[in-house]
Specification:
The protein is an alpha/beta fold. It has helices at residues 39-48, 63-69, 78-82, 84-98, 110-119, 130-140, 151-160, 163-175, 180-193, 196-207, 211-230, 250-256; strands at 10-15, 22-27, 51-56, 144-149, 235-240, 259-263.
Length: 269
């Protein structure tokens, strides 16, 4: 199979011993319309399946618990974690991009700050993120809804990422903030064209030492749950595109678990 033929965000999987046809789709957790170019084709595949899954069952979401997990412990402030130069950079970007002083993030986990500053570089053209749009469609179509992780596992992951460790990632990110808009444009192009390898490599660089909790451990859990469902029922599973590729990505793990894996070419709209 040529590299070009492997360029897809949508994959068909069937158990080698025989069984229902399922799909794995790589998403972006954004409301930017540039990420929605695969939506129509994805919805057509949702129609074929009994079960629809995202990373975690959205009905389990607890905003208060998420907020608590992304709040720094008592006695620690973001300014202490970042140091003088990074804090000065954060001050500049918060005022310029968000219109607020950096002090509003004093008790915020560094991950929350990075997400906030990334979101302002993207458009909010859709009412829901791509994942939420697919979830709502599947719900309307009467599909069985679930997650390939649990919300509690996602919270556990957030709690286990030490803010001191992620502060290093945020410091590097702030230092390179000027190039982030162009980098996001490039990622959107890769996404539209289905370049999973490039998206995975970008996510791997962003993880900067946190690849195991952010990607690898989650891939193992999600692959196990996908296989449990897809051996019995047809499943459409939508997870972040960065989870699909790589030697320990979902496609390789599911192939090793006994599934035949085939890319679904993007159709011209």
């Amino acid at each position: 199979m040529t590299k070009r033929k492997k360029d897809s965000l949508l994959w068909q999987l069937t158990p080698r011993e025989g069984g229902p046809v399922s799909y794995l789709f790589g998403t972006m957790h954004v409301r930017d319309q540039r990420a929605f170019t695969w939506l129509k084709q994805a919805c057509a595949c949702v129609d074929e399946c009994e079960v629809f899954a995202v990373e975690f069952d959205f009905s389990q979401a607890d905003p208060a618990a998420t907020n608590a997990a992304l709040t720094l412990p008592e006695g620690i402030t973001l300014q202490q974690l970042l140091g003088r130069n990074a804090w000065k950079s954060l001050d500049f970007h918060c005022r310029k991009k968000l219109g607020v002083p950096p002090e509003v993030f004093q008790k915020a986990h560094p991950m929350r700050v990075q997400v906030a500053l990334t979101q302002v570089l993207l458009s909010d053209e859709a009412a829901r993120s791509l994942d939420e749009t697919l979830w709502a469609y599947a719900k309307t179509m009467g599909k069985q809804l679930t997650g390939v992780e649990t919300f509690e596992k996602q919270l556990e992951m957030l709690r286990n990422i030490q803010p001191e460790r992620y502060a290093k990632n945020l410091t590097w990110w702030l230092k390179n903030y000027g190039s982030q808009r162009q980098r996001l444009r490039q990622m959107m192009r890769w996404y539209r064209e289905g370049h999973l390898r490039q998206l995975y490599q970008a996510a791997r660089r962003d993880a900067r030492g946190l690849r195991r909790p952010l990607l690898l451990e989650r891939n193992e859990r999600m692959a196990k749950r996908f296989a449990e469902i897809a051996r019995c029922k047809s499943l459409f599973c939508a997870v972040g595109a960065a989870h699909l590729a790589g030697g320990k990505g979902l496609l390789r793990l599911l192939k090793n678990a006994g599934f035949t894996v085939k890319p679904v070419p993007k159709r011209a709209l």
